[in-house]
Amino acid sequence: MVQAKTWILTKPFEGFPQHSDFELKVEELPEPKDGEVLLEAVFISVDPYMRLISSFSVNKGDVMIGTQVSKVIKSNNPTFPVGTHVVASCGWRTHTVCDGTGLVPIMPDWPQDVSLSLALGAIGMPGLTALYGIEEVLGLQKGETLLVNAAAGAVGSVVGQIAKIKGCKVVGSAGSDAKVAFLKELGFDAAFNYKTVGSLEEALKKASPEGYDCYFDNVGGPFSTVALQQMKNFGRIAVCGSISVYNDTTPQTGPYPYLTMIFKQIKMEGFMETRWGHKDPESLKRLMGWLKEGKLQGREHITKGFENVPAAFLGMLKGENIGKAVVAV
Ligand SMILES: NC(=O)c1ccc[n+]([C@@H]2O[C@H](COP(=O)([O-])OP(=O)(O)OC[C@H]3O[C@@H](n4cnc5c(N)ncnc54)[C@H](OP(=O)(O)O)[C@@H]3O)[C@@H](O)[C@H]2O)c1
């Protein structure tokens, strides 16, 4: 008999999530039946979407949603022998019994010197989001200028690096001086701390006086209202995330973008990376190739211990992470 530790929601989030919204519970798991496996969590991901999606998909007493890299430690399913590592959407739990549905094996030739935690970051969902946003949504071309916000985070840091690989000028915005220094290390052409610049409009103009061809938007809200004005005519905007509104209890209203979009003839497209799921195996190989060639860095912000998953989640929402926020169980 295995005991699984789980983090459940004590109540739906209201505004910014609190430690008291989570409770650690221990559950006895049954032995895996025919066709089933027992998974043990190795790395647990904490992501902004969990705040958003849990509002309408997680009820009081439910285990918090999320993905993890886990190891098969018992198996009655020949597709997933003992020792296999998988990406599993089984939430914040140390152990899980499941029948294998939805488990995604780590790519077969994953290099030994690359941490499996990157399967939750640069060589996983956030990396794919960056790649698809750039290639499928923006159609970024060599020589163009791209703006990305939350630029030092899991998605943003990969966006900037791919744009550099493609021969573009990259401007990044992030919420601390340490993050700005990191962006410069990554080769961003310009980076600024949006919390201290005073005028965002001036910072955007200074970084690219001629404006922006593409804007990869992770933040939304007032930032985007200002950024929209700095787009070039026929600019393209990939609406990836809107983290500045995820904790709102009352929806924000604001200046509406339509007139600027008309006069600048801007194209804006929201997307979810799952749209291109059929391309994932090939895309992950490309991301891994860039990593191995030294063109892509997969910086991570690792928190240790299953007991610290809520703290890691709250820290990520507060902007404490540089790179992908992950918990090493
Ligand atoms: N469409 C898709 O398929 C898809 C997939 C993955 C992620 N996303 C979205 O992409 C965005 C980035 O996700 P991620 O996983 O890469 O997270 P992340 O950037 O690693 O972490 C979140 C970051 O957001 C910033 N932030 C938090 N609150 C903010 C606020 N009120 N205003 C401005 N910035 C704030 C913080 O950075 P600063 O210190 O720089 O403020 C924080 O570090 C999120 O909006 C997420 O929902 C979308």
TrEMBL record:
Q: What keywords are annotated for this sequence in UniProt?
A: Acetylation, Cytoplasm, Fatty acid metabolism, Hydroxylation, Lipid metabolism, NADP, Oxidoreductase, Phosphoprotein, Prostaglandin metabolism
Record-listed E.C. numbers: 1.3.1.48, 1.3.1.74
Location comes to:
Cytoplasm
Enumerate the SMART domains for this protein.
PKS_ER
- Could you give a single Gene Ontology term from the biological process aspect? prostaglandin metabolic process
Q: Has UniProt tagged this entry with the keyword Phosphoprotein?
A: yes
Residue spans crossing the bilayer: none
Which Gene Ontology MF annotations are present?
15-oxoprostaglandin 13-reductase [NAD(P)+] activity; 2-alkenal reductase [NAD(P)H] activity
- Where mainly located? cytoplasm
Give the family from UniProt.
Answer: Belongs to the NADP-dependent oxidoreductase L4BD family.
Q: What is this protein called?
A: Prostaglandin reductase 1
Native organism: Anabas testudineus
